[in-house]
Write a structure and sequence with these properties.
five-stranded antiparallel sheet; alpha+beta; Chorismate synthase, AroC fold; homotetramer
Chain lengths: 361, 361, 361, 361
């Protein structure tokens, strides 16, 4: 009962890695918005495996169909159902492991929770589940762009121990990000990241990384006091992405080491209204957007599936050596970029619609 | 519409800083559970201001009343309403500032969102709002303790630039935590934290910090796949606490710099079932608890209200100098400890009840 | 977990008949709306017992306090908490019956559901629970009146076997309704109803009745397709009121016996747009308001508590004779009128706010 | 945002009449339950048009596919997605009417709500939408049958002015119901209903009717106090079905005319516990099931689409004569039987899972 996200702009997803396909219902998208499959496909293409030698070699086409809710290129205000069939199914790769819960995977916990789990692959914990997030997120993004000119750009700001430098949150664009196959907009850092990923791949090991994200042109007033603060729902959204271990907004963990006099963002006149000098708040104060750029960072652990042999236990508790044979990414963060963007869009679209209720039509 | 948290064990809160009081309705607490006001009061006492010279000197009694849902010391299964009257109201302190949005406070964003805001103090962004979280959380904690022996312990693991060392996540207790007024269980670190806080206080400035939290005896199977993963709802819960800027679980941001072969938690036989050797996962895999201790960290920014003069702008955009006169904490993290515990309890109680539905009675 | 109603204009209620009081949190009421306790009190006064010899003689003052969410007579956009203390508590009346589940009451089902129940009176099944509905409904009604000029008027259209005639749905007003103590706007019918109620009272018996309700100036477009149709949520709202057994909108059950050619409401030009000639639809088509007056009827069973001896069984299954001693209404429908109005207002306010999200601000 | 129903056993639906198909995601179905497409197909076959000369002659195959959530014939505990492609699309039939809102249809209200509507057919107000209800309901029914032996049987108890007599709520079965093409288990009444329907068809007119439904072996304790009473959610569920105008449970509207002493259901010993003598309550007291058979009735208006010419107005307000050419049912109630059953199953499955939370595992 948890494959649903959003209160007004609401998404329900479905699909395991080896069933007929994965998909989403977007319920609550306003009517009369132009929407085509191409709007969605471009983000799916950024997510799909097999884009470069830095990701898994598994090829997946991942073509989206709009099943409902759109007629003659316009949304009807009714649920928009999206579907991506599963094509490249090789349950054989996983068969051998079925008696052994893979370390730091979801095999064990699904078994404990449900008393059953998908025999092959990760079921709902599979990376394919994120297709539905990206597809639904692309609809949300279209809505935000069309109505508010909102821009959401994520990039790889760390891969393993390599940090990216010099990214300007006010100007960084998807074009810049996509110039490197590792999706780091800083060219020298990108090259170092590529090397780090290839080294991990050769060592049959994996590395993690950090994805940063900015949301520009966010109007003030988004986010709801108390439990559904803008940063709280962003945190939920990001920590719901597989393999994430941390979230920070604005000054983040580093901010906890500063003095209040350094950390505060004083107000200054900007245009007709107020803006802040500095943005340690990350665009959010008291849980509500203040009109400045929202920015946050998401930590991803190293991929759990590795080629190196691992000493672990099978479901009966017997010690075994596990060697993964399935195709897998040595580093997931380049492909995580559109997932982070998609989830950010879902959060913001929902808050935009929640805020509208405040205003008299 | 966002003062509600939890799907089954559900809490709705209310109250501004200067209205008649603050409170919560806990809807979904199972019946026949022993519950008294004393169960709740002890956590409220740990949250209240004026406990030591390391927090604000403002005295608040914060006595809770159970208005409904309990009869002869037992819950009825019906909504448990909790109320704490506001006593120490000094709107005068805030009056002068009403035309000036305080930097890094919620004055500006509330005004932008609602077109109105509470004239005195922070309204729903006031620290008093957290009383309702702590009160409701104490009910949740009682439920978890009575039914599962669950233990939730939070502590201050950093204050400003002082880090705490040597805390054993398997044994740390509230008694140990409360031995120091700054709620750091490591005595030497505690002393250094006290000094850091007093220095900030003398300088009319403020510092931030980090609260760590462990949840022990969490049964496997809690947390729901996809959007309501255990870590995702913990992240939402923590980032919904005022002044938080970051959340990390298990290995967190540091984990993103490790290799998969280092980071993975291999399985070993434990008792009748499986456990993990190491716990970089923080007790959660694929969004579901695995039976190991859940642990996470929450970053708090330095308190926004400081005595130092700040150059900022009023609502009209005129440059002004703001000097806060209200009583305020130089460092909020010692008092945040029971808030973090309360929110963790609310998350876990809800997941326990959501998981029960899976089982045949 | 079900003391909550509404998605955007959302209400959570609490309180048993013999705890400290009953109340509600209204979360989602738009900001800057004038609101005083007097706005709410007037509907509570219409609901309270002891108004006339046609209802219970039990006197209850039922004074409402606004605990939060309003400052200087204006809503802040934050949760509005409402509280009515319980005063006249006479658990003694109920004591004797505690081992005997009252026929057609909730004693038995609460015990089966929770394994516990409030020792005295009906707990959440008590009539006092409806205080919270009326109080919250008055806030919703204020919002609808201020913003849309909406008018909601309910009346008693049948008491026992006495039907009311001649009520004009386009003009009937609360003033007309309140001219009779049984709240029937048709004077002759009202007199017959009074006699029917007094006869039942003298016979230590009870009767039921029907409450009709109209909502005028409902803008077109309210109600959501599929599961949350306007009539569907009205039906839920009405069947959630204690003692109700049926709901019908527009032509209702009688409409099922008509031909399509008789039943259809053809369109005609009205003002700038369209209206319908006839209103068998009851103001709703496809689950969405069409701009015509919404009207519906709600059936109430006879009050279950009667003075006549009843042969029944105690919890152990032993045959017993039950004679109720508590004070009770011989007919509940006159006091149900403001409850029906309140629930209708809660449904409409929520749909108004849900519809706003469709529009660009 | 309203194509979702149920809190724990939750369904989201999608699909217009002339898009690629209609479907549903069932989120919250417990794991390890046997489920095949055949389980679902049998109810879809009872709903589909073209079954007899008493319904529309339009043929639709309506084959369901399970897209996810089931492996090797067992549910995984993950979302079960169901899809039925649209095949027989003849938008031409509707083309001509597109400038004229059909009387008592949803054309006008959808246009007012969304500013757009599906060009052909009724969009989400189309009868095809109910396919998703029936499919999801069949999953719920399987769950209730497997776990509780619950039986849900609906039948046509009135068609136009013909009432059915002599149906025994304790024994009536689907086999009996399906012996007549009009789904009335009383043979003589069935014949009269057939005649009434054919007369309406010949007259190019339509009639309405009433569907009755019983749910047997419902355990006590289902339904939640206050707003989500069992009868309240049943009422919502039934009034959300297209063309419904009324709902009554147990004694219903007729009960409002009785005396309390006649209406009350006294308790008697039954097996180990208590039951009631008589069942005017319809199996529900205080909103919670009492272990007796739940029964209720649903009123359907006559089909709005008729062949007779109708004087009405186009969207511009010009008077026009409308003659429907599309294929349509002269009476919808025989095909509504599985829809009513499906919605009842969805309500009960959700309450079963909501009640489980009360019990310690």
């Amino acid at each position: 009962m948890s494959s649903k996200f959003g209160k007004i702009f609401s998404v329900s997803t479905f699909g395991e890695s080896h069933c007929r396909g994965v998909g989403a219902i977007v319920d609550g998208c306003p009517p009369r918005m132009p929407l085509t499959e191409a709007d969605i496909q471009k983000q799916l293409d950024r997510r799909k495996p097999g884009q470069s030698r830095f990701s898994t070699e598994r090829k997946e086409e991942d073509r989206v169909s709009i099943l409902s809710g759109v007629e003659k290129g316009l949304t009807l205000g009714t649920p928009v159902a999206l579907f991506v069939p599963n094509k490249d199914q090789r349950p054989g790769d996983y068969q051998k492991m079925s008696g052994i819960p893979r370390p730091s995977h979801a095999d064990y916990t699904y078994q404990m929770k449900y008393g059953i789990r998908a025999a092959s692959g990760g079921g709902r914990a599979s990376a394919r589940e994120s297709i539905a997030r990206v597809a639904a997120g692309a609809v949300a993004e279209k809505f935000l762009k069309e109505n508010y000119g909102m821009e959401i750009v994520a990039w790889v700001s760390a891969a393993g121990s390599v940090d990216a430098y010099g990214t300007d949150t006010e100007t960084v664009s998807r074009e810049q990000v996509d110039q490197s196959p590792v999706r780091c907009p800083h060219p020298e850092s990108a090259v170092q990241m590529e090397q780090a990923i290839l080294r991990a791949k050769e060592a049959k090991d994996s590395i993690g990384g950090i994805v940063s994200c900015v949301c520009r042109n966010v109007p003030p007033g988004l986010g709801e006091p108390v439990f559904d603060k803008l940063e709280a729902k962003l945190a939920q959204a990001m920590l719901s992405i597989p393999a994430t271990k941390g979230f920070e907004i604005g000054s983040g963990f580093a901010g906890s080491r500063m003095y209040g006099s350094e950390h505060n963002d004083p107000f200054v006149r900007k245009g007709d209204g107020l803006g802040t000098k500095g943005n340690r708040s990350g665009g959010v104060q008291g849980g509500i957007s203040n009109g400045e750029t929202v920015f946050f960072r998401v930590a991803f652990k190293p991929v759990a599936t590795i080629g190196l042999p691992q000493k672990t236990a099978d479901f009966e508790g017997n010690e075994v050596i596990l060697e993964a044979k399935g195709r897998h990414d040595p580093c997931v963060v380049p492909r995580a970029v559109p997932i982070v963007e998609g989830m950010a869009a879902l959060v913001l679209a929902d808050f935009v619609l929640r805020q509208r209720r405040m205003m008299k039509p």
